[in-house]
Specification:
- By secondary structure, the protein is of the alpha/beta class.
- The chain has two domains: 1-51, no CATH class; 57-382, Rossmann fold (3-Layer(aba) Sandwich), CATH 3.40.50.1820.
- It has twelve helices and 15 strands.
- It has helices at 2-25, 29-33, 36-49, 139-147, 176-187, 198-213, 233-244, 263-266, 270-274, 299-309, 337-358, 366-369; strands spanning 65-77, 80-92, 97-100, 106-111, 122-128, 151-156, 164-165, 169-170, 221-231, 253-259, 280-285, 292-293, 297-298, 314-319, 376-382.
- Strands 3-4-1-2-6-5-9-10-11-14-15 form an eleven-stranded mixed sheet, sandwiched between helices. The protein has a two-stranded antiparallel ribbon with strand order 7-8. Strands 12-13 form a two-stranded antiparallel ribbon.
- Strand 3 (97-100) and strand 4 form a beta hairpin.
- The longest helix has 24 residues, at 2-25.
- The radius of gyration is 20 Å and the shape is globular.
C-alpha cells in the first residue's frame, strides 16, 4: 500500500510541477490558463497520498538562541545613491520568541538581541536569494545556522521586479506577469549578455565589505571563515564573487553552497567556473531535471557543467520530489508544505555538515557527508 501511495504522490507532484514550471518558463501564460479544479485535485492528491520515510538522524544541535535584526546599507555607485536592506541572524543568549517575518514566514528569534560574545569570533555565511525574492528566502536554514554558532547575512537585492521584501513582506501590486517574463529572459541569457545582471554581484561585493568591516557584528566575525551561497539567480550572484569574474573575486570566501541554480551555470563559461578554487556543494530538485535554461540546456545538464568544472572537494545532491521552488520558504512552495519539511531537513543537514567540515574544520561532520540520505536520488562527491 505504501508503494501505491508513493507512486500516486510522485505522479501528482510531477504533473503539478510541469504546469507550474511551464508557467515560469513561458512567462506565466500557462498558469493563467490552468484549470483551477485540476490544480485543486492535484494538490489534494499530494496532501492525501504523500508518504516519505522518516529521518531519525539530526545533525543540527543548537548551542545558542538566534538573534535577528534588519539593517540598511547605503553607498554610492558613481553619483547614484544606493540602498540594500539586509537581514542578520546571529548567536545570542537572550530569550527567543515566535516571530512572523515580513514574508509571512514564522520562526523563533530574539529580535534586536545582543550577540553572545562567548564563542566569538564566529564564521560568516552570506546568502543571495533568487530573482524577485527576498533575504528571507531561506529562513529554514539561516535561523538554525545562527543557533549553531554562525553569523548569517541575507540581502534584498534590487531586482527590476520584486514580489516580497524583508521589512514589508509581499509587495503590493507586484506585476507578477512581468516578473515571470523577466525571469524567463534571465534564464535564456548567456555569458555574452550577462552585463545587465552585474548589479547583483556589485551588491554582494558591497554587502561583504559592510558586514566584515562596519556592521554592528563585524567585531564578532572570523575574517578567515567566510562562505557564500545562493538560490537560482542567487547562485550566479554567489559564484560572481568566488573567482568566476576576476574583478569581483573576494579571497576571503572559503566555500560556496548552490541551490538549484540554472543561471549559475549558463551565465558563466566552463573556464570561468574552473577558476573557482574553493569547496562547493550543489543541490538540484529531482522534478526540475528537464526544465530548460540558457541555450536550450536542461537543469540537469547545467548542474553537470557546474559540478564537472568546479574543483574538489565538491558535492552534488539531487533531492527526491523537489522542484525549483522547494529551496525557499515563499511563493508556490506553500502548496507543497508537507513534503518541504523533509526537503528542508535534508538541505539543512548536508549544508551545515558541509560548512562545519570545510569552514570550521569539524571532522565529526564527515559522518553526515559520508552517507546518502534516502531522500536523495543522486549523491556525488569528489574529495
Amino acid at each position: 500500500m505504501k508503494k501505491f501511495y508513493l507512486s500516486v504522490y510522485r505522479t501528482e507532484t510531477k504533473r503539478v510541477w510541469r504546469l507550474v514550471s511551464g508557467a515560469i518558463i513561458r512567462g506565466g501564460k500557462t498558469f493563467c490558463r490552468m484549470n483551477r479544479r485540476g490544480i485543486f485535485l492535484s494538490l489534494l492528491g499530494i496532501a492525501v497520498f504523500s508518504w516519505v520515510p522518516a529521518h531519525s538522524e539530526e545533525v543540527v544541535r543548537p548551542s545558542f538562541n538566534t538573534g535577528y535584526q534588519v539593517a540598511s546599507i547605503r553607498y554610492h555607485q558613481g553619483e547614484e545613491k544606493k540602498t540594500i536592506t539586509v537581514a542578520l541572524w546571529y548567536p545570542t543568549k537572550e530569550q527567543a520568541k515566535v516571530h512572523t517575518y515580513g514574508a509571512g514566514v514564522t520562526g523563533k528569534v530574539a529580535t534586536d538581541a545582543r550577540i553572545c560574545p562567548e564563542g566569538a569570533p564566529y564564521p560568516l555565511f552570506v546568502f543571495s536569494h533568487g530573482y524577485g525574492g527576498s533575504g528571507l528566502a531561506a529562513v529554514y536554514l539561516t535561523e538554525i545556522l545562527a543557533s549553531c554558532g554562525w553569523i548569517v547575512a541575507a540581502p534584498d537585492h534590487n531586482d527590476r521586479y520584486s514580489a516580497v521584501r524583508i521589512p514589508t513582506g509581499p509587495v503590493p501590486n507586484c506585476n507578477r506577469r512581468n516578473l515571470l517574463k523577466h525571469a524567463a529572459h534571465i534564464a535564456a541569457s548567456t555569458p555574452e549578455n550577462r552585463g545587465e545582471y552585474l548589479y547583483r554581484i556589485k551588491e554582494m561585493e558591497q554587502l561583504l565589505k559592510w558586514v566584515l568591516s562596519v556592521s554592528p557584528l563585524h567585531d564578532f566575525i572570523d575574517q578567515k571563515r567566510v562562505a557564500v551561497g545562493g538560490h537560482s539567480f542567487g547562485g550566479f550572484t554567489a559564484l560572481g564573487v568566488c573567482g568566476t569574474i576576476k574583478e569581483y573575486y573576494d579571497p576571503r570566501i572559503r566555500a560556496v553552497v548552490l541551490f538549484s541554480t540554472g543561471v549559475g551555470g549558463s551565465l558563466f563559461t566552463d573556464q570561468e567556473l574552473h577558476c573557482v578554487k574553493i569547496p562547493s556543494m550543489l543541490f538540484l530538485g529531482e522534478l526540475e531535471r528537464d526544465a530548460l535554461r540558457g541555450r536550450n540546456q536542461t537543469m540537469a545538464e547545467i548542474a553537470d557543467k557546474i559540478y564537472r568544472n568546479m574543483p574538489a572537494p565538491k558535492y552534488f545532491l539531487e533531492i527526491r520530489g523537489a522542484h525549483h521552488l522547494s529551496f525557499v520558504n515563499q511563493f508556490i512552495t506553500e502548496l507543497f508544505e508537507g513534503n518541504n519539511r523533509l526537503i528542508f531537513e535534508v538541505i539543512r543537514r548536508y549544508t551545515i555538515a558541509f560548512l562545519k567540515k570545510h569552514i570550521s574544520g569539524r571532522r565529526e561532520a564527515e559522518t553526515i557527508l559520508d552517507q546518502q540520505d534516502s531522500l536523495l536520488t543522486r549523491y556525488l562527491r569528489t574529495l
